[in-house]
Each structure stands twice: as structure tokens, then as C-alpha cells.
Amino acid sequence: MALPNIAQLSTAGPEEILRPVRPWFIGVTLALALLGNLLPVSGVALALKPDFVALVLLYWCIQEPRYVGVGIAWWIGLVMDVGDGTLFGQHALAYAFLAYAAEFFRRRVLRFPLWQQAAQVAVLLGLCAALVLLVRYVGGAPLPRWTYAVPPLVGAFLWPVVTLVLQWLPRPQHSSTAL
Amino acid sequence: MRHIPLEPPAFFPRGPSPIARLAFFGLVSIALLFVDTRYHYLEDVRHVMAVILYPLQRAAQLPGETLSEVGNYFASLRTLNEDNAALKRLLVERSAMAQTYPAAQQENARLRTLLDLGKRYGAAATAVEVLYTSRDPFAQKLFVGKGPGADLRLGEAVIDADGVVGQVTRVFPHMAEVTLVTDKDQAVPVKVQRSGVRSVLYGAGAGHAPELRFMAPSADIQVGDVLVTSGLDGTYPSGLAVARVATLERETGQIFARITCAPLAGVDRSEYLLILGRSAAAQPRPEEPAEPDKAKKIGKAKRRGAGTP
After folding, report:
1. Is B47 on the interface with A (CB under 8 A)?
2. Which residues of chain B have pLDDT under 50?
3. Helix (H) or strand (E) segment spanning residue B157
4. Phi first, then psi: what are they for B274, rounded to 5°?
5. C-alpha angle B38-B41-B47 in degrees, rounded to nearest 5
6. For A39-149, where are the alpha helices, taking DSSP H only?
7. ipTM score over 0.85, yes or no
């Protein structure tokens, strides 16, 4: 099997046509992201761990809005609420907001190079975290430590990786040029 | 295989607009949040979903378990020998205490019969292993595994070798959620071991030390005093070590002293915990209006607004 060359590992331009993504591929990647979120880590790793589900969800909301939208995001958020043992609706609200933001975001995001996309993703993930903070604070929870701001930034750093990995499979050249 | 571009131009109707969908799901979320915070009606839904999610959670735990098993395998003989020696020393140290314990207990029982007091804690205890700490940055919780046969109940006290860790707040089929004494919503009735002064230890959330609130500046309490459970709430058996007084500020201008404490138990370190079953002979609590999930509310400072369901 041929390794992908460097040109393939760049972001897809707006003029490039990607192979349509199958719904099962979206489902599998979301399940893997959920698995990543459920990893039982503690200490520094927990403070650094980004919200993988939010990242993958954001990616699919931008790339495949036909399949993944506000409703799907909301349901996944509900699952996340159960997995994390948090308040019902907390992640759901955040993910629904994320999916909605992606609706505007997607019209221009592909025009930017990856690192600039990452900066915008940082803002979106930060807004999500702020929304959760607001909801919990109103609900009577104490303010978290300052490390609360770290996972969205780590998530933004991972955005190029997520994009490259998820774009690598549906590339038409991937199968045709490798032969 | 054919792939037709499925996305129609925007001017064709495509169901509700994103903003309408966001408004709908946002309102549902807020309703859910409100119901979950105030009324706790959704626990059954949570349980069902937790069961469905269990295989995925189990899968997520596998890599860590494998790693630690591999690590155990390569643990050197020397470490094991050292551990063994330390444990033996500890055993000898504790055995002296253990030998005097039955006598003390007998004496205690006699005194209690004399005083006509109810029985102390004496029910079964379950040893459990900590699976992982909660990923919720707003709460101080951890999840422990339990065998299918283990009969854990809400509100049961959780301790480690050094003191009280917290109490069971949710029970799932394969694990249970323990809220730590450092959680903001936790309150533990305590007394000062030295002087017997009673108080309540309030958790303050991540990164803050638990506090004794509403203590008069003149109360007989010193830095270094050990706080033990007073057993007044019927949740924690009396006499378990909880915390040590860390700082003490008595300002003349204030009505109450400001007292912060450090938990004695390794609330964020212990790997193995003991869950104390509630003694059947515990005094029944005074009847309040029927609340089906009373145990959950124990330790919550906040009162629910609603009366009887």
C-alpha cells in the first residue's frame, strides 16, 4: 500500500471535489471520538484532554451538513451528558450551538489555511466552554479551575490533525493514484 | 455505485432553518437542565442510557487496564519486597490497635446499653476499586466499579484507609458514582475529636479547601484538630476521621470564624475504597413529606422548592 504523499496530506481546497462520505463513516468516526472522550484519564491528562466529540462533530457539520446538523449534535450531546455524569442537557446545548455556528462557519472556513481555521475553531470551542460554564454557574456550581480554558485550546491545535485524517479517506486520488 | 449530489440549492425547502432548530433544541436543553438540577426526575432515563453506553465505556477502559497490567507484570521483585516489608510493618503496628478493639467495642456496647442508645454501624462493607475520576470539571466525583452482586445504596458512606472519602450518589448496574467530601454540594456533620464541638463540614469545589461554617469565634477548636463524623445525619457512621483543621481566622469584626480543613483521606489519590453499608438498626429519620429519593438529598445544603410530588 502506497503511503500518502505530502500533497495529499494538505487540506482540500474549495475547488477540489471530495468523494461523498458514507453515513457509516461519519458514525464510526463519531463513535471513536466518543470513545476518546470516555477514556478514563486523570490528573494532567484530564486537564489537557480536548473534547474529541466536539471536534469531529464540528468537522462533519462543516463538511457534511446534510447528515450532521443541530439535531444530531444535540442527541450526541445527550449521550455525552450520560457518559460524563454531568447535568442533562449541558453538552447537548453546547453541541447544538456548535452545530449552528458551523452552519455559518462552513461557508468560508475552507478558504483559510489550516492554522487560521484552527484559530477560528479555538473561538468556537471557547464559546462552547463558556456556554457550559454559564449554564453550570447559573445552576449553582462553583467556578472551575483556570485549567478549564485549556481543553478548547488543545482542541484547536488538534483541528488540523482531525481535518487531515478525516479528509484522507474520502479523497478520490487516494484510491486511484495508489493503484 | 452512484453518488448523486444530494444537497439541493438553498432556495428549495429543507425543513426548519438552523436557527429554528437551534431555538427548539436550545429550549429543550434548558428545560432538561432545569428539571435535572431542581427535580432530579431524569435519573431513570440516565440509568437506561448508561446501560446502553456501558459497552463503549468498558472499551474505553481497556487500554488503561492493559497498560497497568503490563506495568504490574514488569514490577521488579525489589519493589514488591519493599512493599511487602512496609505492609508487614503496618500490620504489626495496627495489630496492637486491633487487639484492643474487641475489648473497647465490648465496653462500648455495655455503655451504650446502659445509656440505651441505638446500635452503631455494623453492617456489611464492600471493597471497591476506583475506575476513574469524573470528567465534569464542576464537580468532585469519581466512579467505582462494583460486582453485579454488590448491593450498594444511595447515600452510603465511602471511606479509605485514612478517613471519609464521600458518599454514593448514583448507582449504575456496573459502577457507582461517589461524590467526594470536597464537592461543593457535600456537607458532612462532624465533631472535633478533642473537644467534642459539633459542626458541619462543607465542601467548596475543586481547588478550595472544605470549610466549617457558622462557627462562633469562641468555639473550642484549634489548628491541627481532627474532625470525625458525628453520625447525626444517619448517613455517615459516627467516629470516622474526616479532616484536619488547616487554618483558623478569628476576626473580632466577624460573626463567624473562618475555618478551612484538609481532608485526611486521599480523596483524589486512593485506588481502593470501602463502602459502608447502612446499619439496619440506624435510627429512622424524622418523617418528612414523602420524598422517594430522599437519600440523594442528604448532604445537600439547598432545599427543593417543591413540596410533595
Report:
1. no
2. 1, 118, 280-281, 294-309
3. strand B157-159
4. -120, 130
5. 125
6. 44-48, 52-63, 70-84, 90-109, 114-138
7. no
Q: How many C-beta atoms lie closer than 10 Å to residue B89's C-beta?
A: 10
Q: Tell me the domain boundaries of chain A.
A: 29-176
pLDDT, position A60: 92
Quote the pLDDT of residue B288.
Answer: 61
What's the whole-model pTM score?
0.76
Shortest CA gap B85–chain A (Å): 29
* Inter-chain residue contact B139 with A141, CB threshold 8 Å: yes
Task: Please report the domains of chain B, with CATH numbers, ordered by start residue.
Answer: 18-72 (no CATH), 75-118 (no CATH), 123-279 (2.40.10.350)
Q: What is the pLDDT of residue A4?
A: 46
Q: Residue A53 and residue B173: Cα distance in Å, rounded?
A: 25
Residue at B290: amino acid letter: A
Kindly report, residue by residue over B41-64, the tens digit of the pLDDT.
Answer: 888 888 888 888 888 888 888 888
| H/E stretch holding B109 | helix B77-115
What was the pLDDT predicted at B307?
A: 39
Rounded Cα gap, residues B27 and A70, in angstroms: 13
A141 touches chain B (CB under 8 A): yes
Which pLDDT score is estimated for A123? 92
CB pairs under 8 A between A and B: 138
- Residue B268 class from Cβ within 10 Å (0-12 exposed, 13-18 middle, 19+ buried)? middle
pLDDT in tens, A152-177: 999 999 999 998 888 887 665 544 44
Q: How far apart are CA A164 and CA A63, in angstroms?
A: 13
B110 three-state secondary structure: helix
Q: Does A40 touch chain B (CB under 8 A)?
A: yes
pLDDT of residue B304: 42
For residue B145, what pLDDT is reported?
86
Q: Is the pLDDT of residue A73 over 70?
A: yes
- In chain B, what residues touch A46 (CB-CB under 8 Å)? 133, 135
Q: Does A39 touch chain B (CB under 8 A)?
A: yes
Q: Which three cell numbers stand for residue A17?
A: 471535489
Chain A (150-179) residues lying within 8 Å, Cβ to Cβ, of chain B? none
**Number of other CB atoms surrounding residue B131 within 10 Å:** 19
B138/A69 CB distance under 8 A: no
